[in-house]
Amino acid sequence: MTLALLDCPTGLAGNMLLAALLDLGLPPEVIAAPLAALGLEGRYRLRIEERRSAGLRGLHLAVEALEPQPHHRPWGALRGQLQAAPLEPALQQRVLEVFGLLAEAEAAVHGHAAEAVEFHEVGAIDALVDIVGVCAGLLHLGVEQLVCGVPPAGHGRVVTAHGALPLPAPAVLEIARSRGLPLASSEGFPAGELTTPTGMALAACWADRFGPSPAALPLRVGVGLGSRELDRANLLRLTLARPLGEAGAEGAIEGGSEWGEVREALLQQQAQIDDATAEDLAYLAEALRRDGALEVFSQPVAMKKGRTGTLMTALMPPELGPRLRRVWWRHGTTLGVREQRQDRWILPRQSETLATRLGPVRIKWATLPDGRRRAKAEHADLVELAGRLGRSIEEVRDEVRRALAADGGAP
């Protein structure tokens, strides 16, 4: 698994994230190609410099518009431009998700429908470059999981197209509220904006969870610098890492067996529910998964007074216990949740992207105790290709099998 750890002690901004990706070695053409597909070629310039902040090196990135920008950009027009562009489906989906979240936040704070939102700061060309570039970069690096530190949002006020606004910026606060995301204290920082709406939206759409980083083996680190001078290093760090317990990671033998399996500590949360509809239970399960649960499943149970109910179970890393309890309270009807520590044994696994005649498909490889490897295609990729090409899932699966055989059947 490609794990990304985002450390943001002085906040989040789109240009800082993009700079960190370039510092990781992201080829600039990965950013330029989708922007050209959007008709932006020759309309902007990336100014990339290696700088130092409080003695620490990193890359600073600024986007320079090469032509006058519109005063505002309606969300409906921008969405149509993004939907019509010949972008890779995964990239198009991610970019639309980020801009859609920004539109919903702006609509909420200004009190009108999302369709009526007119982007100002985030509708300019620099936001398009930041959002498209960051999404393209994370997809290019094959990031499957991203854990984000809790960012400080800033305090004081900021001057925008709407005039002077309080900090945290209203859209930042609304994104955090709507997604149930934490913000760190800005105490001790000079007055000013630390986390921008664009940076918050990118993190909200990409991060699997917010909080401390899990135990992992760091592989590569990219540093993006902010523009403001602070009383400390103004930077964020994006680390590509391998989770402990995955094949090849230091420490993988610890907690393992002589057959190569790895023991993983989990927390189990359970509740018996008899006063929720099937639709409500489905939404609760999806909310638990979205906020970091590794597995969510349910089964029918007989409860008191002969009532039929549902036993819902969620498995998660132990540190996510408090966060997931809040999901039960927010989206469920239960008045209590049981918790139990458990261990599970997992086979060492790794992921790769397989090129097939129909398109790329992510493959998960598991290493068996006898050394053989077993491949499983990501179902979401099979569904996406089948729907886009008008094929059955079985046809796509057969094509994956042929590509695996041609590739020698091994990663």
TrEMBL record:
Coiled-coil ranges from the UniProt annotation: none
Sorted UniProt keywords: Lyase, Nickel
Signal peptide per UniProt: none
One Pfam family it belongs to: Ni_insertion
Superkingdom of the organism of origin: Bacteria
Similarity-based family: Belongs to the LarC family.
Listed name of the protein: Putative nickel insertion protein
Biological source species: Cyanobium gracile UHCC 0139
